[in-house]
Amino acid sequence: MGVTLQGIGVLITGGSLGIGKAIAKACVDAGAGVLICARDQSALDSAKSELERIASPKQVIRARAADVSRSDDVSALVDFAMSELPNFSGLVNCAGITGPTGLLEEADIQEWILTIQVNLIGTMLTCRAVIPHFRKQAFGRIVNFSGGGATSPRPRFSAYAAAKTAVVRLTETLAQELNDTAISVNAIAPGAVNTRMLDDVLNAGSQLAGSAAYKQALKQKDSGGVPAEKAAELCVKLLSPESDGISGKLISAVWDSWDALLAHRKTVMEGDLYTLRRIVPKDRGLTWS
Q1: In a shared domain, residues 259 and 200
Q2: Domain that holds residue 203
Q3: Which residue among 27, 177, 234, 267 is least crowded, i.e. fewest CB within 10 A of its CB?
Q4: 160 is catalytic
Q5: 141-183 confidence digits (pLDDT tens)
Q6: What is the tens place of the pLDDT at every residue in 195-223?
């Protein structure tokens, strides 16, 4: 028997397309009731119909249009989740946009700010809205999505990289704020998945995206990229009781051994494994005075 989310209610932002929809399907397959949100109502309706076709008659499937960068939308969304989802105890922050492509000094400032608002502020607002509910019921699971640029520079995608790095630090910080509760907060790096964001890079072209990023995008498009189901499988595991005791970690869906991580959770939680950190000379065997 696989990982089960039987009887759990999960809210998934950005759940109408790409990785978000793959996560919604995986959660439904694992027995969860789900609420998906996105800005595009027609895409939501289509995704909801797909989920209803694979759900059991007793599973709750809901969809609601919302802009996660707007606090009023997020408050209404979480109120809806609390009223509609039985045992609402899971949040997945998957909503995101690529933002402006090109050099910082040439980027449209409003698009740059909007990228931070959607990718970072949207994640913060949903976390902030669900935490009081999770505290009250003494249990909850939050999974945030990192992305390219979070662990290394990503030239010409500065807004996206800055936002996704901040999401990881927000994840680590919230985990410490909640370390005396049964609420976990983790982040996933999904890998190079072929989503709408890949199309954004290809549409931008090599002049804006840079030759290296554009060539990599072409290669990824041709290869098919990392299956979205890889990140979805990890997400379900982090939402499940199998991840008890793991919080504040950035986990790669592609490169990390999840089973080993869970088998060694005491060691993982006692140190700085799977976290952002600054490298100092002694880490590289250097003894500068």
Answers
A1: no
A2: 195-225
A3: 267
A4: yes
A5: 999 999 877 888 888 889 999 999 999 999 999 999 999 999 9
A6: 665 566 666 677 666 676 666 666 555 66
